[in-house]
Amino acid sequence: MTRYIIRRLLYLIPVLLGVSLIIFVLFNVVAGDPTAVLLGKNATPRQMQELREQLGLNKPLFAQYLDVVRSAFTFDFGRSWSSKQEISQMLRQGAYPSLCLTIPAFVISTVLSLVISLGVAFYRGKGIDLFVRFCCIAGMSVSALAYILFFQYFFAFKLGWFEISGFEFGFPDFVPFIALPAIIWIVLSIGPDVRFFRTVILDEIYQDYVRTARAKGLSEMHILLKHVLRNAMIPIITYVVIQIPFLILGALLLENFFSIPGLGGITLNALNSSDFPVIKAMAILSSVVYIVFSLISDILYTFADPRVKLK
Amino acid sequence: MKSLMPVLVGLVLLTIGCSKERNFDERELHLISPEKIAGFDPIHGSDLYSANEMGKVYEGLYEFHPFKRPYELVPNLAESLPNVSADGLTYTFVVKKGVLFRDSPVFKDGLGRELSADDVLYTLKRLADPKLQAKGWWLLDDRILGLNEWREKNAPLEASNYDEVIEGLKKIDGYTLQIKLKKPYPQFLYALAMNYTFIVAKEAVEHYGKEFLNYPVGTGPFLLDKFEQSNKIVYIKNPKFREKLFPSEGEEGDEKQGLFADAGKKIPLVDKIIVDIQVESQPKWLLFHKAKADLLEIPKDNFDQAVVGGADLAPELKGKGIRLIKNPMLDVTFFAFNHEDPLFKNVKLRQAMSLAWDRGEANKLFYNNTAIEAQSVIPPGLGGYRKEFKNPFVKLDLELAKKLLAEAGYPNGKGLPEITIQTRNDTISRNTIEHFSKCMNKIGVKVKIGVNTWPELVNKVTKKQHQMYTMAWGADYPDAENFLGLLFCPNQSPGSNGSNYCNPAFDELFRQSTILQDTPERSAFYEKMNEMVALDVPWIFGFNRTKFYLSHAWLKNFKYSEYTHTQFQYLNVDLEVKKELSKKF
Amino acid sequence: MKTNSLWKDSFKQLARDKISLISLLIVLFYALVAILSATGIIAADWSKEVGGSNLPPSFEHFFGTDFLGRSVFIKLIRGTQIAMSVGLATSLIAIPIGVVLGAVAGYFGGWVDDLITWLYTTFSSIPNIMLLIAITMILGKGLFAVYVALGATSWVNLCRLIRGEVMKHKEREYVQAAGAIGGGHFRKLFIHILPNVTHIVIINTSLQFQVAIKSEVILSYLGLGVQGEPSWGTMIDDAKLELAKGVWWQLAGATLAMFFIVLAFNMLGDALRDSLDPKLKGK
User: Fold this and answer.
1) Cβ separation of B282 and A39 shorter than 8 Å?
2) pTM of the model
3) Residue A61 above 90 pLDDT?
4) What ipTM is given for this predicted complex?
5) From the CA of B26, how many Å to the nearest CA of chain C?
């Protein structure tokens, strides 16, 4: 087990090298020169030249790549080019609002989806099952942007039930601000979640052991909750855990629309202002989180199903 | 896990509708900043909104008079206007005595020390420091004797040497300094009213290092209390602010508007300022509507809700005592041609395109009919603008446009390649080009849109990789030189002349005029240049826009200014009125 | 043999199932509209002014007009062409990459597998949005960039699935048998194994298609989408400014147009999975 974990953690190295390479190629080599933007509308050519020098953009490409790699492994991202703030500080500040939105939304939508899909599996093939399935698919067929635009306009602006946008630090001050985006998040994710959970649960229901249990005269509810759910937990855990990295990155569109100062907004801003160090930091951070959580999901696998052996 | 859900849902529902009690005892000013603020380092704030925030905690030697129009420079930290030598090259400044920096641990015993001439010299050198790459360096570049040399010399060093005495920047005594220019620079004093030259304390810069931008130590009327970069900024009144009094004169009509009710009082008048950072327009509108902001720059998409018929305030808002404040801005929007593209050497093509654009419709669609059609490069309100001047190519005349297009060699657009206009990637920019393209289609000119993020657009312009682009220019200071320079040949990309326009006759006039002080003679020069260049259609001139503000009745002393950064210290809140009117919200 | 009957069965089942049939018809209808629009038979004059600015829906203009007085209905048709082309092009880019890399990785294993696994792990660990934005930065904005950006980010999932499936198949008897009678790697992989994993491609494509259509909307909101032509994305993006003025028809039209095609693809994807994926056959 320990060896497996170490091996998987070592796998971070080639992946981080790969991420650095992609980010480096996309932003250092191909993307344009950031100096004109960084210096404002009255920049002088001379000054742009000097700034390029200071930012290390005149260094040979290989040396620049090494810089990217170095920061990927030391987690020292330096300062933002555009706001000149410490990047680690920016990330810390941005993580809080992002998590305030994504964690409750994620927990609620996962639990809700699980309950719904168990119910649907119980009544499989009946009218209610068809109805819920249709609602899920129909819900998934509307653009996320349309939901956001409509909900914000209708519930926040027209009816005034929610704060239109913004954010307050500290509990419970932030709750009214994240309520509506969280609801939209739930609406958006409940469709695919229920669909997936239902399939997984149904997969199990047709297994032999269920038939045996039924033959033994156990109640359907008992089978569903005790046997089926336990076995269905494996793919469900994988599915859920692998989503966690995206929570940390924040909900880009939602944050943008509701002016929540989270990591999603920071990323978008950085992309829109050629703020290379921030983009780099976000890409590296996200790949580390991604790998760590896929490892966690693999380890949880063994707890949920002792048959799975990690090599 | 299942029991968690109802609890969470309950919490969400509970807190909805619970809003905080409003405070009617303290004089609080609630403002909105539509842009995120990078920080409080004066030398790096290149946009209006950063300047607004810096102006609350820092001060410059001069400021624009809050009420007088046209804009007039008045002394702020300086005792008076400088003593200028006859050749216009040597300026002698005296700073006010007894001005204190705010209390801060960077000073001895934590007490703010007195401002001296050294601070001014240090601030100016800092603007030139090659290590810092200030956004405001262009103001001093090649202007002050010895400063460029100092910059050069320090570029390869580990840290710049501020102790070296520069010929052009000399201390005379504790409060007096002398600045020597290389050549006459009539705009110099404007530079000393801009945020780039707000006076900073050497101790603070050295103590905080790179974190200086989060810990402003200035002489200004307010102290920074809380700074959440993309959410909120809070200021409190500076208790040790010097004796600065509310002015008692301004423009005609100001008196009637009650702007001088606080005349003679010590400023600042409010105890606290809370600035909400709010980029999206819908929420801004709501903040104001719920009386959580005292002042609102009307977002374009809420215009119809606020203003009826392009002129008057909606009755519903009037009933709540809300006031509409509108003012033409010192700006111009334009579609620039890239004059290095052989296609646009053809003046008739440029004129034809200008004549085919339906400005009336664009004004209605994008500015609710409130913008003024720009006749040339100088906007109204600046010396050099002549109301009577009408550009014959700034109107809709499809017949003439077609005729000129044929004369240009492209009858009905035949033989003319498709033209790409570069613009930004937001909805309004895209709509603007769609409309422009529709207009051009009518004479057979095919226009394609090129969409860019802001950095991409700036890069295309500075690298001359565009056929046409569209942008707006706002006045850095109230002098037409700032606009005319956009067409001055030596300012070509990567300078501010992004259209790479070159006209030797114009350049000659520009050189002659820019060394003149603000005199009628100079205005005549400006007029001549402005009207000469208009006929050549170097750009398709767009609009001079109007800015609209909504103000609640309890906000006092607000008068529109293009240079709002020193404006906030004069504002006041009438708590009685606020208490009374708040019932209506 | 095995494949043939599976396909036949599936088709029969699909045809029996009314919902799937309707979904298929919807997809075909959209495809037809897209083709007619692409060939210029309909909606060629989308940029023409048909009335005043922002007219509400009426008998004359089913979905009203936009800010330039263009018919929203005709723009929707034109948008259909864009949406379908985005879905198609994305699939055409993603499928070959995903299938070939996935199959090669699954079949050969060893360092080839390591390399390809590394490649898709790296790709999937960078947030999609960064890749999308970076690619549109490099290629310039427009339809082509949208194709490439979406194609380049959507092969990962297919690759992973195919790799797993091919791994399972390569140990099966029929593959071993093909080896025994002298079939080379290429033959074993592409002639024998691949036809047996096609169902994954089909299911994945029908789902990928609608993801691509939805992604185009997001890209348009970020200002990276289709330029100079009406797409559902730009229409929804316009609505951002128009809603406050009470102009809801562009949003409604584009959302509806998108709803039916995405719904149809989702239904079809579900039905295909039920009929093609033998695992779920029993129910």
Assistant:
1) no
2) 0.85
3) no
4) 0.81
5) 34
